[in-house]
């Protein structure tokens, strides 16, 4: 927490941006959100959220909106009962929309499938019956390690239907990362595929599951979807999806669960090496996912075609591919592959093909599109697009303007949505049609949400001032804890401003002169690489687990495309051999990190150094290493135990060692 907000100079540009884009009269007139929404929420917050909860079907109505008596553990819609999957699927069929397409699925090799709500209902029921036959019931944990195939969504909803908790692990994580996550929450079942298509080629996925499961005794069965048709090893735990699920009855009666019944665990990086299992529950989570989907994206279920480009392995995929959209009876595109397969216009081709009207993506991808050139989107008909979204990291004004001009036809409002795995749903964002947007600023907490920028003492800073982002009111989709670690939950989020009772988000932020909020990046040891949270300690542990490495320090250095890039400084072991710092050896270290965590954690650069800068108490001063990584003059070294260390490092790097 001693670091200054992470993204260096780009932020100075951010903060001099002053353009605003008022909504057009035409958009404002048809918008779901009206200015009164803010007033209404302010007048009576709990009544406001109760009204939002009415968006859902409850089998039993709640008796109390919020119980905060056991803070920081919230209970929302106390006494209410509902089934989350019923709310996302069955009720739309019952209201006469069974023939509406829920998912236009687009496979990377070009295969596609349109799934109506009636079909989705049948698929989810079959999957629920199959899971039940494997002994899965309420509160059991199911790991889902899959690419973006329809069965991944069926599986999540089947768990929700049974009251089982899913723990989706991003398909790009390593066997080791999967194993630790399976083990932490004792998953009974793993659902996976034989392989996945990536950049035009099939890649195996099941071998990672085999490796993880061999060391995770809690796993009783592995359910395998055939996707690539590649050869897989087979054990008695393995069951083919098509053999088990396809033959099941497509009727399943959902059971209503308590509003606070656990829905899922999703692991995210914290400031230590061990990922945190963020716990979300049912009624409050679904209420806020549904509410934000409706207002922030201005979703019109009868006419819009929505596309969120995230992977279900991240929270954005949970809340804005599965629960938010489906609870609103969306028609959406789900795309399996990478944006440049088979060509760099793939996304725009898909937008044109399906007439996508709402598109939600991450700044890192927008910057990649910028690099590929404006002539690529210009080749396609993007006139259907009417709302654009951004999430995952601060968006620089240049990228924002490029997005608006080249994707949004110079008129689609952009919603820059700030939130976290922990918040479950969007917290800060302009409401399209109501708020004049500003390139680079997420602007205002949504109606019903309390957010502030405070100084070290927890006192709100004046307009123009900067500090830490806090959330000063409980919200329905807030995390209910960290799986199996109550203390860590209190420490991580509630101790920094314990006296004030604020939730500490871990982000630096600033108010501009109008009081709009600008996010400035993480203030802890968490890096944000292409919108993915990776902790410096996690990568350090991976590096020191390699036999040639004695010590490692990792920093996030600003990167024009990925936001931050991972830069590692390593001290080699005495016996590592003269070759240990060579190109081959560095490559081996990068590959080792990919194997330990996943390719997303591969350092951009690894520098071999003789020493690391440490304080007298032994804490590594990453601030100084970031100066080196970003080619800046090294800052104040007076708190170092040995102030000559930085000279040693710089000298070593210059001599190319
Ligand atoms: C960052 C992703 C600036 C932030 C939904 C946060 C953002 C972390 C924005 C959460 C945004 C997310 N502007 N920063 N619009 N959205 N962040 O848990 O640092 O993967 O704390 O959730 O991403 O990342 P997570």
UniProtKB/TrEMBL annotation:
GO terms for cellular component: cytosol. The keyword Acetylation applies. Residues 1-24 are annotated as: Disordered. Residues 95-483 form the AMP-dependent synthetase/ligase domain. PROSITE patterns: AMP_BINDING (PS00455). CoA binds at residues 198-201, 316, 340, 530. Mg(2+) binds at residues 544, 546, 549. Residues 36-88 form the Acetyl-coenzyme A synthetase N-terminal domain. Keywords: Acetylation, ATP-binding, Ligase, Magnesium, Metal-binding, Nucleotide-binding. It catalyses: acetate + ATP + CoA = acetyl-CoA + AMP + diphosphate. InterPro entries: Ac_CoA_lig (IPR011904), ACAS_N (IPR032387), AMP-bd_C (IPR025110), AMP-bd_C_sf (IPR045851), AMP-binding_CS (IPR020845), AMP-dep_synth/lig_dom (IPR000873), ANL_N_sf (IPR042099). Catalyzes the conversion of acetate into acetyl-CoA (AcCoA), an essential intermediate at the junction of anabolic and catabolic pathways. AcsA undergoes a two-step reaction. In the first half reaction, AcsA combines acetate with ATP to form acetyl-adenylate (AcAMP) intermediate. In the second half reaction, it can then transfer the acetyl group from AcAMP to the sulfhydryl group of CoA, forming the product AcCoA. This is Acetyl-coenzyme A synthetase. It comes from Lentzea aerocolonigenes (Lechevalieria aerocolonigenes).
């Amino acid at each position: 927490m001693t670091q200054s907000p992470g993204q260096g100079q780009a932020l100075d540009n951010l903060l001099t941006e002053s353009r605003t884009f008022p909504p057009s009269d035409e958009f404002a007139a048809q918008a779901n959100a009206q200015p009164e929404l803010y007033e209404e929420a302010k007048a009576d917050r709990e009544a406001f959220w109760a009204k939002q909860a009415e968006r859902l079907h409850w089998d039993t109505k709640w008796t109390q909106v919020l119980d905060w008596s056991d803070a920081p553990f919230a209970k929302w819609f106390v006494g209410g009962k509902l089934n989350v999957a019923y709310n996302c699927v069955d009720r739309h069929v019952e209201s006469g929309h069974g023939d509406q397409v829920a998912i236009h699925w687009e496979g990377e090799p070009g295969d596609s499938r349109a799934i109506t709500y009636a079909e989705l209902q049948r698929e989810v029921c079959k999957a629920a019956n199959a899971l039940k036959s494997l002994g899965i019931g309420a509160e059991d944990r199911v790991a889902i390690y899959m690419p973006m195939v329809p069965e991944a969504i069926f599986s999540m909803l089947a768990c929700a239907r049974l009251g089982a908790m899913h723990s989706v692990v991003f398909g790009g994580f390593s066997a080791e990362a999967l194993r630790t996550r399976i083990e932490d929450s004792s998953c009974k079942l793993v659902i996976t595929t034989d392989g996945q298509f990536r950049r035009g080629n099939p890649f195996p996925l099941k071998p990672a599951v085999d490796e993880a499961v061999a060391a995770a005794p809690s796993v009783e069965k592995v359910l395998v979807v055939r996707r690539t048709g590649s050869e897989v090893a087979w054990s008695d735990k393995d069951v083919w999806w098509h053999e088990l699920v396809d033959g099941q009855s497509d009727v399943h009666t959902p059971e209503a669960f308590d509003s606070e019944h656990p829905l899922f665990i999703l692991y995210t990086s914290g400031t230590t090496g061990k990922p945190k299992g963020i716990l979300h529950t049912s009624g409050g989570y679904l209420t806020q996912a549904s509410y934000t989907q409706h207002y922030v994206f201005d979703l019109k279920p009868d006419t819009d075609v929505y596309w969120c480009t995230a992977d279900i392995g991240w929270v954005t995929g949970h809340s804005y591919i599965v629960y938010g959209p489906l609870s609103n009876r969306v028609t959406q595109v789900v795309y399996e592959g990478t944006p440049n397969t088979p060509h760099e216009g793939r996304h725009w081709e898909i937008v044109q093909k399906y007439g996508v009207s709402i598109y939600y993506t991450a700044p890192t991808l927008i910057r990649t599109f910028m690099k590929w050139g404006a002539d690529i989107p210009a080749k396609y008909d993007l006139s259907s697009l009417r709302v654009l979204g951004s999430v995952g990291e601060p968006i620089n004004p240049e990228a924002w303007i490029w997005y608006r001009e080249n994707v949004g036809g110079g008129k689609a409002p952009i919603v820059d949505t700030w939130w976290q795995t922990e918040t479950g749903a969007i917290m800060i964002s302009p409401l399209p049609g109501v708020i004049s947007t500003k390139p680079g600023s997420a602007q205002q907490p949504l109606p019903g949400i309390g957010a502030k920028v405070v100084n070290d003492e927890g006192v709100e800073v004046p307009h123009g001032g900067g500090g830490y982002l806090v959330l000063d009111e409980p919200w329905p989709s807030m995390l209910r804890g960290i799986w199996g670690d109550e203390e860590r939950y209190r420490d991580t989020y509630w101790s920094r401003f314990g006296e004030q009772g604020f939730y500490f988000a871990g982000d630096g932020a600033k108010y501009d002169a109008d009081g709009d909020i600008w996010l400035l990046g993480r203030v802890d040891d968490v890096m944000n690489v292409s919108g993915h949270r990776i902790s410096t300690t996690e990568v350090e542990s991976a590096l020191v687990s390699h036999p040639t490495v004695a010590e490692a320090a990792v920093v996030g250095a600003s990167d024009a495309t990925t936001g931050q890039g991972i830069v590692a400084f390593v001290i080699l072991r005495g016996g590592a051999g003269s070759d240990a710092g060579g190109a081959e050896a560095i490559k081996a270290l990068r590959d080792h990190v990919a194997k330990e965590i996943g390719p997303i954690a591969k350092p951009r650069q690894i520098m071999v150094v003789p020493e690391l800068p440490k304080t007298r108490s032994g804490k590594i001063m990453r601030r100084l290493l970031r100066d080196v990584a970003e080619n800046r003059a090294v800052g104040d070294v007076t708190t170092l135990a040995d102030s000559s260390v930085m000279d040693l490092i710089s000298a070593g790097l210059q001599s190319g060692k």
